[in-house]
UniProtKB/TrEMBL annotation:
Protein name, as recorded: Diaminopimelate epimerase
Residue numbers marked as site, Could be important to modulate the pK values of the two catalytic cysteine residues: 172, 225
Gene Ontology MF annotations: diaminopimelate epimerase activity
InterPro entries: DAP_epimerase_AS, DAP_epimerase_DapF
Similarity section: Belongs to the diaminopimelate epimerase family.
SUPFAM superfamilies: Diaminopimelate epimerase-like
Quaternary structure, from the entry: Homodimer.
Superkingdom: Bacteria
Gene: dapF
Keyword Transport: no
Function: Catalyzes the stereoinversion of LL-2,6-diaminopimelate (L,L-DAP) to meso-diaminopimelate (meso-DAP), a precursor of L-lysine and an essential component of the bacterial peptidoglycan.
Pathway annotation: Amino-acid biosynthesis; L-lysine biosynthesis via DAP pathway; DL-2,6-diaminopimelate from LL-2,6-diaminopimelate: step 1/1
Record EC number: 5.1.1.7
Length: 333
């Protein structure tokens, strides 16, 4: 059976889109997990690997034009992917000739739409990040029986840092830090402990972001992701960081925030809900690139054959990365 994989990125957070609706038969979940682990491997995977796979499926109910599942590089499944949903929005928008629609995700159908390009040649999309919850039970957080964690120390992690935990809806632990801490080893130390599979605080793991305030409505977010490790950017992490900026660090609802990350830059706007039909009290608009790097077709047998060298598989390169690199180079802000 032939499988086409399209390598895409949002802020250089890279994924392969795997469209199940194009296959002779649906893949089983164990097949999806093993394919993800194989193609994402940064050494032996496809085209230098990726941070995971975005599985596109038919929607399970009326309204959305497609469904997105998020599989981390280690094979674990996440409920949401902010950088990824922008690329799936571009993919589905092209396939269905629509520019403003909903995508079904694990917990909600989310609004996406094509947005004004961040720079010439940069296909840009806006995605709704929602539902959002601070409840420890929604986060898989276990710390001193706290129902929520807002700007609190966690002694077992650090005697200096203050943390806020929020699900968007995947779990994030956010800490506002100075520049030295942002670029130092603490993020890796704390996040690898919390994602080691048996710590008592986040037994199911958590995405951890350190945030530096560069100026008014201007942040730098560095993230160590559950199921992946360090990534160039994490859309849900930047959205969670933006919400914490508004609630705790002097930011304001409905104002456009510029969020830089190691892979580039996105814009966010934090909203307080007035529409009872929306999923939760807060939601975030995430605006950023949806870059398509190229695609290739391999067979399931090749993917299942450990002797088949994926690094030798050619991709039809779109050439879009040149424009994306020019965009990042222009970010001398
Ligand atoms: N990189 C993704 C997040 C993936 C989430 C995954 N790491 C998890 O929650 O386990 C983003 O742009 O939002």
């Amino acid at each position: 059976m032939e499988i086409t994989l399209t390598k895409v990125h949002g802020s250089d957070n890279e994924f392969f889109i795997l469209d199940q609706t194009k296959l002779e038969r649906p893949l089983t979940d164990p097949e999806i997990i093993s394919i993800t682990q194989r193609v994402s491997d940064r050494k032996t995977g496809l085209w230098n690997g990726a941070d995971g796979v975005l599985v596109v499926e038919s929607p399970t109910h009326a309204g959305p034009i497609g469904k997105m599942r998020v599989i981390n590089a280690d094979g674990s499944e996440a409920s949401m992917c902010g950088n990824g949903i922008r690329t799936v929005a571009r993919y589905l928008g092209q396939a269905h000739q629509q520019s403003d629609f909903k995508i079904e995700t694990m917990y909600a159908d989310l609004l996406v739409k094509q947005a004004t390009p961040l720079a010439p040649g940069i296909k840009t999309f806006q995605a709704e990040i929602s539902p959002i919850s601070f409840a420890a039970k929604d986060l898989g957080l276990h710390w001193q029986d706290l129902p929520e964690l807002h700007h609190q120390k966690i002694g077992a992690l650090s005697d200096q840092l203050f943390f806020t935990a929020v699900a968007v809806p995947n779990p994030h632990l956010i800490s506002y830090v100075d520049h030295e801490t942002l670029v130092g080893p603490e993020l890796g130390r704390i996040a690898s402990y919390l994602n080691n599979g048996d710590n008592p605080i986040f037994p199911s793991g958590v995405n951890v972001s350190f945030v530096e305030v560069l100026g008014d409505n201007h942040l730098f977010v560095r993230t160590y992701e559950r199921g992946v490790g360090y990534t160039n950017a994490c859309g849900t992490g930047m959205s969670a960081s933006s919400l914490v900026y508004v609630l705790e660090q002097g930011g304001h609802f409905e104002q456009e925030l510029t969020i830089q990350n190691p892979g580039g830059m996105v814009k966010t706007i934090v909203h307080e809900n007035t529409d009872p039909a929306r999923h939760s009290k807060y939601w975030v608009s995430l605006v950023g690139n949806a870059t398509f790097l190229g695609s290739t077709t391999v067979t399931l047998d090749q993917l299942n054959d450990p002797q088949f060298d994926l690094t030798k598989v050619d991709f039809a390169d779109t050439g879009e990365q040149v424009q994306y690199r020019n965009f990042v180079a222009s970010l001398n802000i």
